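Today's session is about reading a structure prediction critically. Students often jump straight to the picture, but the first step is always the sequence itself: look for stretches that repeat, for charged clusters, for runs of hydrophobic residues. Only then move on to the predicted structure, which in these notes is written as discrete structure tokens rather than atom positions. Here is the chain we will use throughout the hour.
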Amino acid sequence: MAHDEAWQLRAIGLVRSDVKERKQMPPLGAPAAIEVYPEFADGLLRLEKHSHIWVLAWLHGAERDLLQVVPRGVRAEEPDALHGVFAVRSPVRPNPIGLTVTRIVRVHDTRIEVARLDFIDGTPVIDLKPYFVSRDLVFSAANRQIGRPASRENLRESLIEQALNFHGETCPDLALAVRVMEHYRWEVLGGSDPEGLRVIAPWERGCLVDALIGMTRVSPGRGTLSLLAGDRVRLELRDRAHEYLLLPLLVYDVAATLAAPDEALFDWREVTPG
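Below is the predicted structure for this chain, in token form.
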């Protein structure tokens, strides 16, 4: 259409990252910074009001002539491997605009250091917008899993991010909840993200409960979360149930909990549902 020719995009800055190639990018991105050009410095006034921002970038190296792709984590031979580009986060799309929400670590002059971005070094940034908890958070949203984690370590990293996004800070009980869900999803479900999961958790351990909510999106109001006394986590999925007896942590430390073998953290077994 004629009016398309009048559209103009101006980069407001560049991504600075240790990741130089797309194939090197971790699934959840990497620590990075945004260097805003000096002529746009005034636009950063009061940015400190916000803990997180949306970063919109122009994926200048992406293909623009494909409408269907096989997403990361999906094998090409699977019957449902092919997805439309509007159903996935692939950089391949007619207008290669990247969109990522990230936590601000530090703002210094025109440099914004962020927790992680999935844009390679030198990617043009075309806009920044604050993340508003009053309108951007949709905790009841649902997705069907696209692909599976490449490794148990990748799954752990994703679960930590989900738990942290809900709870807001790392702590040993958050790490313990991550290890429980990591084991359940990897060893019991083969990497799948369970749909219709019901969780029963100890009410005395608020950090652990918060982490479980963040990773599974369960809630008391929907009848998918129950809180009971004790030190057990029970996970029920359709006609199967698994129970995790939480063992006392030998060292009350996040890194130690994430690094410990499963048997040092919990005993688990399949139990009768209901």
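Discussion point for the tutorial: The longest strand covers residues 97-108.
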